[in-house]
Give the backbone structure.
Amino acid sequence: MTTDADVVLAGVAAGKAPIGLEDVPELMSRVDSKYIVTAAAFVRLAAELGDRFAVLRIGGRRQFRYTSTYFDTPDLLTFQQHRQDRRRRFKLRTRTYLDGGGQWLELKLSGARGSTDKRRIPYDDAPAQTLTTKAMDFVSDTLISELRLRAPDTLGPVLSTDYKRVTLVDRTGMARLTCDTGLFFRNAERVAPARRDLVLLESKSADGKAVVDRVLRRMGVRAVSMSKYCIAIAALHDRPANRWRPVLRRYLA
């Protein structure tokens, strides 16, 4: 019988001390490392981390539903830039916190030495699948000032992702770990679900040397090269997966 990682994460989250959103550092500029682990491996990881990590709790909840809509050009410019590992690149999405937290327009910028710089603005007053004039002004100004790139004129919604997330927070304030389950990608024609027995982890820290990364290495778990958006494009649009092919084969149902 397949272990449902949703259920496992809910159990682990219930056993951790809570921390409020106001006590979680933003870490908008950070180094991200991604891992795919089984539910059993996640239980072992949580035990290894012990009391050093608390679980984010908002309004009594410890597990939250997210949906994100990604924007790209008709020829998938941002996907191609990522696939080619361009030094200056970006991804644009709306993110909706279905269990509270509102909706945001987020622009993720590539940075030096593998760092990620995320800029965002509140977006509660617009549909998640549209880009308003205010949104495009934000995108244009940020890309010019930060990457010296001109924003494409033809950005539109390409696909959406849905998943549940538990967030573990290092009490030192230096790092956090997001734990995603139940992920599936969708566009107007197709849906591609991830395996329900696996957890997608993202270790986020200022220098990429968080205790989570050290523990996972001791467990024999190595970071994977993946992007939710790029994996989704490869799966839904039949685009070349290149270095993401091993993740596609293992992670998708």
Remarks:
- The chain has seven helices and eleven strands.
- Residues 116 and 164 are 22 Å apart (CA to CA).
